TrEMBL record:
InterPro entries, sorted: ATP-dep_Glu-Cys_Ligase-2 (IPR051680), CP_ATPgrasp_2 (IPR025841), UCP005522 (IPR016450)
SUPFAM superfamilies for this protein: Glutathione synthetase ATP-binding domain-like (SSF56059)
Domain Circularly permuted ATP-grasp type: start-end pairs: 75-452
Protein name as it appears in the record: Circularly permuted ATP-grasp type 2 domain-containing protein
Organism lineage string: Bacteria, Pseudomonadati, Pseudomonadota, Alphaproteobacteria, Sphingomonadales
Length: 498
């Protein structure tokens, strides 16, 4: 893939041109607001995040202090028609992921029909044979999905990876919006932006909708956390508080006669739905890791008996596997009968000899990833890697090719970002959140934009020095939409009220 300039989501393909017509007013705001004022507002937001305890820890880092994810004051904007197309593709993909999980732990039609190699599933460490034959309440496996997207042009969106296990980051989406409303109210007077603050209510309704029983006063839902030492503990606490449900640890739950109970000062309360933020390995020491202190003994037996819903369902990790990702176009086609509306990034499966040869010959051009890697770890970005790093990856690929996939180095879109020297383009990706309940699939109108704060970097992960931005989804009746409808696509820039 030849190099080409990155598409700037506000300025278009050429940063020297006027802003994209629909975003002219945002471009004007950036031009007229001094950098010092933008920086003051950004620092105010970060101070609030620190006071609230919105922090994370980097495992294995010698610096054990928790830190905030840097916040950038310049929003990323999706036009209404862009969002409509993205939503259709996201719903199709998540429905396919649910059908795939239901199938591989059930009839395995996709394997019988030869669409996927059998060993890719049954020999995959993320496949949980202990779950085979079980079916979650209402047949829904992936209740909460975070589908990572990248953009390379005005109408070019690609899925970078799927997160169907325990996707994180939604608390940043909510807190970023709250900060923007408080610090940049003029933007919300200018543009009609879809709200995201309904997410906790939508999540709770999704949880209740998959409860195996109603109960006299409605289903009892809880959030299960590994504890306050977990890097995402703030989010666990934040979501439980926002939904008005209990945040529990393993010691707060007990299974008796295949029913899950929560210990309270008023006695035991039956639990119907568990939003777990504990990985499969640690979920139930009687089924998975026997040394786990984070799980609930007997939980999988209660789940198998149909007495509790677990969100997301055990065994979902295989849908996150990057080798499985490479087959998603075929998976979508198999279960939906149509072509994927959101394409994958071109992917070479290093387990295949021809693909391995290509990757080994082009290591300085491609991005290589562990199939079960996350957080930016176990990854080689060829164009920016040192010779020693490339040779180390070459040896790893030759030794265990099945553990890796490779992708071309894309020209990820950029958004103006407040750097030390002032506003400057930085590469971004995007994680929208998709909820699946018994009443259907819904896409939250927003998401988590992650930004690579280092100039030229394509790595957006917070553990690798990335930051976040608010993500505006404009309503169909925003000023720009009315103008483009009535003025044949020409948009008049408007000033901001203060």
């Amino acid at each position: 893939m030849g190099k080409r300039p990155a598409f700037d989501e506000i300025m278009g393909m050429d940063g020297d041109t006027p802003p994209r017509p629909a975003l002219a007013a945002l471009g004007r705001w950036l031009e007229e607001t001094p950098d010092d004022e933008l920086r003051r507002r950004q620092e105010a937001a970060e101070t609030t995040f620190r006071q609230l305890g919105i922090t994370f820890a980097v495992y294995g880092d010698t610096d054990t202090r928790e830190r905030i994810i840097p916040f950038d004051i310049v929003p990323r904007v999706f036009l209404a028609d862009e969002w409509s197309r993205l939503s259709e593709g996201l719903v199709q993909r998540v429905e396919a992921i649910n059908a795939f999980l239901d199938d591989i732990y059930g009839e395995r039609r996709i394997l019988k029909d030869g669409v996927l190699p059998e060993d890719l599933i049954l020999g995959n460490p993320q496949f949980r044979p202990e779950i085979a034959g079980m079916r979650p309440p209402h047949g829904i496996w992936a209740h909460i999905c975070g589908i990572d997207l990248v953009r390379t042009g005005p109408d070019e969106f690609y899925v970078l990876e799927d997160n169907a296990r325990t996707p994180s980051g939604v608390s940043y989406m909510l807190e970023n919006r709250e900060a923007m409303v408080r610090l940049c109210p003029e933007l919300f007077r200018e543009y009609r932006v879809e709200p995201v603050d309904s997410y906790p209510d939508r999540l709770l309704e999704t949880m209740k909708s998959v409860a195996p029983r109603g109960g006299a006063s409605g289903p009892v839902c809880v959030v299960l956390t590994p504890g306050h030492y977990n890097s995402a503990y703030y989010e666990h606490s934040f979501l439980a508080d926002s939904m008005g449900i209990e945040l529990v640890e393993a010691a707060d739950l007990v299974v008796d006669d295949d029913i899950v109970w929560m210990r309270t000062i008023a006695g035991r309360v039956r639990v119907d739905v568990i939003y777990r933020r504990v990985d499969d390995d640690y979920l139930d020491p009687l089924v998975f890791r026997a040394d786990s202190m984070l799980g609930v003994p007997g939980l999988i037996a209660a789940y198998a008996a149909g007495n509790v819903a677990i969100i997301n369902a055990p065994g979902n990790g295989i849908a996150d596997d990057k080798a499985i990702y490479s087959y998603m176009p075929e998976i979508v086609r198999f279960y939906s009968g149509g072509e994927a509306k959101l394409p994958n990034v071109e992917t070479w499966r290093c387990r295949e000899p021809q693909a391995l040869r290509y990757v080994l010959d082009h290591l300085d051009e491609v991005v290589v990833k562990l199939v079960d890697g996350s957080g930016g770890y176990g990854m080689l970005v060829g164009p920016t890697a040192s010779r020693a790093e490339i040779e180390a990856f070459r040896a790893a690929l030759i030794a265990e090719p099945h553990r890796y996939i490779a992708q071309p180095t894309l020209a990820l879109s950029t958004v103006p970002t407040l750097a030390d020297s002032g506003l400057s383009p930085r590469h971004v990706d995007f994680r929208p959140f998709v909820l699946s309940g018994s009443k259907g699939v819904q896409v939250v109108p927003g998401g988590l934009t992650r930004v690579a704060l280092k100039e030229g970097s394509l790595v957006v992960n917070s553990s690798q020095g990335g930051g976040t931005k608010d993500s505006f989804v404009l309503m169909a009746d925003s000023p720009y939409q009315r103008q483009t409808q009535t003025m044949g696509g020409m948009t008049q820039a408007q000033g901001f009220g203060v």
